[in-house]
């Protein structure tokens, strides 16, 4: 995409490109998202940046009208399997905050200098700057949605000192923490935090400072088929771990979630806002906020580019009617990759309903109970290390599948198989296929959901083949669907079935 094309997108305030690039205005020193409602600047005063961190590094501060730091992420990072794409996924998951640049480089298999050079060359910012931009966004959310002291927020957002926290906010937002808190956006704001200040989940299962949790608006681009996504999650919800409450069209998905420092309770509403989903996070440890947001975004596939998907899949004559019938169909990922992988084994060669029954039994027998149940939420999913040596006799399935579940759990626990946000997808799939009892369907399903790969097609799946027959699609021609075959598969799963003769 040329700079002239980018400027055309800015002139038309095209929200399709929010998160794909940012632009800075030299005369004001402010950077914005393409859809910013402010007066369009002259072309000679505009500079373009691939990331918000690059704009901040060039001395621009975030616009208070369009809040570019709250834009959806670029779909490129999920589609790309190279080091830059993997690094961006891991930075989003908080790896730099937890392990530093050396930890990120080690996971990528490069030196810290190589990672710095690659990211700076392509994105205009290195890993520290990218993580810093993310920390500033987290801090703004906490300032505007909680009543915590600024010093508590500084360390919860990942800053090493209060001074660093204050300096960063002044540089990025041209405001002090007090001023940012006073500028909390109204409920009608197009992006960013929403709702009244909430609280965090206490160690006893209650909340500190309120019961609503941290309220968020999770932005997405283009159309979003909430009905299909919530239907998909409802059919697979495990008792005690997840629940879907409310009537269709106004449902709320709730679940417990393990995070790097502690646990959380997540709530996401089905009824969309103007380009966002309402979410509430009740965290035991506020340091987990950034990671929790990214994992929920992956679960709901909020960084997808439905325009690019529709353009590619709509070019296929058989898929075009399906794409037109369900605009914004998403490919849900996973909030916990280990959990998803283990659940995939439970779903081998059985229906979704039968797999759910097995999952319910696994939660009841091996899940960690919450100290205080919250509605229908009573347990955390069991850890891989807890299942590696478990008898699993409570589960009504063949011993061979119990052995596969234990084998996979052991591989996840000891790191033989890695499912972190930046895992090398090809290598991970080979490692999975090397485990006894894991075949192409299971490894492909894990790759699609646990690793958020947008280009997976389970050609052996019975429902996919049935959908293809009904649509008149030929799976052998699926090369033309790349790199969005996961979305093609969801369209085939949702395709009308041919009536029996």
From TrEMBL:
Top-rank EC class of the record's enzyme: hydrolase
Keywords from the UniProt entry: Activator, DNA damage, DNA repair, Methyltransferase, Transcription, Transcription regulation, Transferase
SUPFAM superfamilies in alphabetical order: Ada DNA repair protein, N-terminal domain (N-Ada 10) (SSF57884), DNA-glycosylase (SSF48150), Homeodomain-like (SSF46689), TATA-box binding protein-like (SSF55945)
Name of a matching Pfam family: HTH_18
Lineage: Bacteria, Bacillati, Actinomycetota, Actinomycetes, Kitasatosporales
Name assigned to this protein: DNA-3-methyladenine glycosylase II
Organism: Streptomyces endocoffeicus
E.C. numbers: 3.2.2.21
Top-rank taxon: Bacteria
Stretch list, region Disordered: 183-207
Cofactor: Zn(2+)
Bias (Gly residues) ranges: 195-207
Catalytic activity: Hydrolysis of alkylated DNA, releasing 3-methyladenine, 3-methylguanine, 7-methylguanine and 7-methyladenine
Keyword Acetylation: no
Domain HTH araC/xylS-type: 85-183
The keyword RNA-binding is annotated on this UniProt entry: no
């Amino acid at each position: 995409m040329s700079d002239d094309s980018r400027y055309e997108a800015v002139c038309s305030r095209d929200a399709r490109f929010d998160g794909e690039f940012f632009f800075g205005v030299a005369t004001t020193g402010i950077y914005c998202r393409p859809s910013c409602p402010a007066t369009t600047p002259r072309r000679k005063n505009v500079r373009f940046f691939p990331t918000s961190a690059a704009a901040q590094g060039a001395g621009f501060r975030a616009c208070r009208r369009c809040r570019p730091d709250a834009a959806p992420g670029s779909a490129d990072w999920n589609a790309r399997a190279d080091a830059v794409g993997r690094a961006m996924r891991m930075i989003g998951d908080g790896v730099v905050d937890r392990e530093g640049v050396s930890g990120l480089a080690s996971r990528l298999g490069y030196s810290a200098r190589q990672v710095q050079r690659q990211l700076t060359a392509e994105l205009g910012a290195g890993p520290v700057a990218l993580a810093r931009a993310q920390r500033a966004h987290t801090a703004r959310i906490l300032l505007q949605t909680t009543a915590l002291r600024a010093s508590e927020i500084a360390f919860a957002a990942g800053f090493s000192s209060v001074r660093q926290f204050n300096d960063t906010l002044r540089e990025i937002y041209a405001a002090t923490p007090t001023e940012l808190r006073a500028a909390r956006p109204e409920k009608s704001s197009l992006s960013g935090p929403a709702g009244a200040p909430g609280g965090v989940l206490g160690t006893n299962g209650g909340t500190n400072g309120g019961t609503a949790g941290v309220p968020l608006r999770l932005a997405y681009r283009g159309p979003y088929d909430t009905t299909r996504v919530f239907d998909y999650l409802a059919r697979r919800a495990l008792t005690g771990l997840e629940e879907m409450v409310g009537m269709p069209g106004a449902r709320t998905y709730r679940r417990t979630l393990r995070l790097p420092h502690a646990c959380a309770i997540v709530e996401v509403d089905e009824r969309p806002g103007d380009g966002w989903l309402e979410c509430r996070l009740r965290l035991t440890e506020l340091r987990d906020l950034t990671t929790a947001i990214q994992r929920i975004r992956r679960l709901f596939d909020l960084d997808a580019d439905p325009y690019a998907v529709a353009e590619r899949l709509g070019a296929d004559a058989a898929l075009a009617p399906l794409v037109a019938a369900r605009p914004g169909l998403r490919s849900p990922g996973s909030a916990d990759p280990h959990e998803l992988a283990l659940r995939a084994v439970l779903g081998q060669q059985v229906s979704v309903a039968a797999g759910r029954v097995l999952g319910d039994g696994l939660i009841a027998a091996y899940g960690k109970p919450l100290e205080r149940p919250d509605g229908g939420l009573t347990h955390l999913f069991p850890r891989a290390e807890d299942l590696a040596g478990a008898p699993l006799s409570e589960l009504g399935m063949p011993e061979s599948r119990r052995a596969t579940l234990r084998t996979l759990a052991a591989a996840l626990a000891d790191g033989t198989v890695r499912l972190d946000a930046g895992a090398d997808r090809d290598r991970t799939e080979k490692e999975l296929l090397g485990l006894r009892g894991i075949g192409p369907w299971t490894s492909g399903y894990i790759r699609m959901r646990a690793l958020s790969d947008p280009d997976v097609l389970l050609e052996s799946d019975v429902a996919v083949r049935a959908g293809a027959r009904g649509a008149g699609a030929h799976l052998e021609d699926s090369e033309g669907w790349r790199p969005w075959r996961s979305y093609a598969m969801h369209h085939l799963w949702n395709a009308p079935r041919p009536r029996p003769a």
